[in-house]
Amino acid sequence: MILTVTLNTALDITYRVPSLRPHSSHRVTEVTERPGGKGLNVARVLAALGHEVTVTGFAGGATGRTVRELLSRTAGAVDALLPVTGSTRRTIAVVDAATGDTTQLNEPGPAITPAEWSAFQAAYEQLLRSASAVALCGSLPPGVPVGAYAQLVRTARALAVPVLLDTGGEPLRRGVAARPDIVKPNADELAELTGSHEPLRATRDARRRGAHAVVASLGPDGLLAHTPDGHWRAAPPVRARGNPTGAGDSAVAGLLSGLVEGLPWPARLSRAVALSTATVTAPTAGDFDRAVFEDLLGRVTVTPEVSAA
Amino acid sequence: MILTVTLNTALDITYRVPSLRPHSSHRVTEVTERPGGKGLNVARVLAALGHEVTVTGFAGGATGRTVRELLSRTAGAVDALLPVTGSTRRTIAVVDAATGDTTQLNEPGPAITPAEWSAFQAAYEQLLRSASAVALCGSLPPGVPVGAYAQLVRTARALAVPVLLDTGGEPLRRGVAARPDIVKPNADELAELTGSHEPLRATRDARRRGAHAVVASLGPDGLLAHTPDGHWRAAPPVRARGNPTGAGDSAVAGLLSGLVEGLPWPARLSRAVALSTATVTAPTAGDFDRAVFEDLLGRVTVTPEVSAA
User: Could you list the residue range(s) of the whole structural domain that residue A279 is in?
Assistant: First the structure.
């Protein structure tokens, strides 16, 4: 199975309101809830692609219970989340029906105790023993040490399980140094890590910091990959319009499934770009449109990148 | 005991954000949760005044479970809520820390089935047999007939239990016609019911529609009461500054506790105004400040109202 780790799971709530006006009262016309946090999104896409997938991380309180209930309805994803005392956070996306714009409200995560973090590390090592690959995704909740991902990367590498890291800030900086197989920063995370806003230079620099392969997601421009097998740029044939929520998570699912299936890098990148684009165009945020995905798959352009390095 | 009915209970969530900017992403710095819906607020104040109080109405889903968990920590309020299949709604108050202004997002209530409504009516009649008074509070969730309060008023009157109605719109219009002992509309509800924006005239008119006593809450101006014993205006000695959330519910608790204790109308009105004002000035929305309440109690001015009727 493929393992995805979401230390800061969330209950993602979407509210539709006729028009958002600050300092007034709104009747919410539509409420949708889904289990959230990047690793859970990655798992949903992997399961839809036909992979066996197990999710782990933390879940607690009433919202944690709801996340697990909703997760149990996601075909194919096995729930190996660890219960914690704190409450799983909610995120609220308020969609203004008049403009289509979204206002996001994100609760802080639950405080994780040292005992809970230790229990997680033990459970994680156990789960890795039957994993073909692992994705470490998203932010860290309060109480989890900033070097957490570095430690989880080292554990995976000691057990020879390919590991992909998708996070930002200091957890990314430390995680990269532990030499993960793949990191997938977006443009902002890459710039924060390297100090460079020039993607080509920054991607190369991120690899020098320790990652075996760096796949930078550049929004509608697609992906830029520096790998031991070569350097590529992968772009969708059309500029997709829609909701980019979850597009990066779909790219991670594409990369990881391609790795597990032994696909060469260009095929992995095509799949990641097609999934990502089909997520932007899907009517429900975070889902991907299968017909669009299948249509795009053969039409993604993957071109070798000529690099100075 | 005093019974309070909240057909549309809620989980009241308050978010504090540094500054609310539509169409951007916000980190919530503080999250508070409390059991909500007007009848639950009334019950909390009655319990704080030393009364035995039972709450009934509907609770369902994960938010319903949370409401009941939080309610169980409110000393003195007995939980007689009926479980339903639908999910209890959330309300979210987003407080802008920069300005102090609040943006409110209210989910719709759960759909109540005919069987659930029938079960409630039977449970309500049973609870009334040990009640000294009952308050019917707030909006109706989908599925509950618009004449629901009229029916609940008639049941209470048939069992000789004094009944106070605090709602608006068509449920108020129908409820008043069933001759409740007290209705407590605010200025907007009163104007909607009677078509008049002149409080004195509108209060008199509301009484003619069937209520034995009408107590109109006029915000910082206090209360205007038309009762079988006389007409009064009750006003706080100072204009309170603060959060008016729950002030009307505190007024209901004041009126109902005074009725049960056999206080004359002027004393009931003083208590209601003092509680209401002490709720506006309290640091936590919906709570009342006991010291302010006790200080104000003797200083509320209750003056007989000279009426043309």
Answer: 2-7+36-87+111-304
CATH of residue B287's domain is: 3.40.1190.20
Contact B26 A107 (CB under 8 A): no
Residue B30 located in a structural domain: no
Which of B21, B23, B29 would best serve as a mutation to test chain A binding (most A beta carbons within 10 A)? B23
| Least CB–CB distance from B106: residue in A23, A25, A94 | A25
The one-digit pLDDT tens for each residue of chain B (309 residues) are 999 999 999 999 999 999 999 999 999 999 999 999 999 999 999 999 999 999 999 999 999 999 999 999 876 799 999 999 999 999 999 999 988 888 999 999 999 999 999 999 999 999 999 999 999 999 999 999 999 999 999 999 999 999 999 999 999 999 999 999 999 999 999 999 999 999 999 999 999 999 999 999 999 999 999 999 999 999 999 888 887 888 999 999 999 999 999 999 999 999 999 999 999 988 777 789 999 999 999 999 999 987 544
Q: Is A28 on the interface with B (CB under 8 A)?
A: yes
Q: Does A97 touch chain B (CB under 8 A)?
A: no
Domain for residue B102, yes or no?
Answer: no
- Please report whether residue A21 resides in a domain: no
Give the rounded distance of the alpha carbon of B78 from its chain centre. 17
A12, A181, A249, A287: the active-site residue: A249
The residue with tokens 């968990």 is B69
Test B22 with A96 for CB contact under 8 angstroms.
yes
Q: In whole angstroms, give the CA distance from residue B229 to residue B280.
A: 29
Q: Inter-chain contact B96–A23, Cβ cutoff 8 Å?
A: yes
Buried-exposed string B170-203: b where 16+ CB fall within 10 A, e elsewhere: ebbbbbbebebbbbbbbbebbbbbbeeeebbbbb
Tell me the residue type at B108. P
ipTM field: 0.84
Q: How many CB pairs under 8 A join A and B?
A: 79
Tell me the nearest-neighbour CA distance from A102 into chain B, angstroms.
5
**Measured distance CA(A238)–CA(A277) in Å, rounded:** 9
A29 vs B contacts (CB less than 8 Å): 108
Number of domains in chain A: 1
Distance CA B267, CA A20 (A): 43
CB contact under 8 A, B108 and A69: no
B249 is catalytic: yes
> Residue A32 corresponds to which tokens in the numbers above?
């949708």
Q: How far is B308 from chain A (nearest CA, A)?
A: 37
Which candidate from A17, A25, A104 shows the least CB-CB separation from B26?
A104
Q: How far apart are CA B194 and CA B5, in angstroms?
A: 25
Is residue A13 assigned to a domain? no
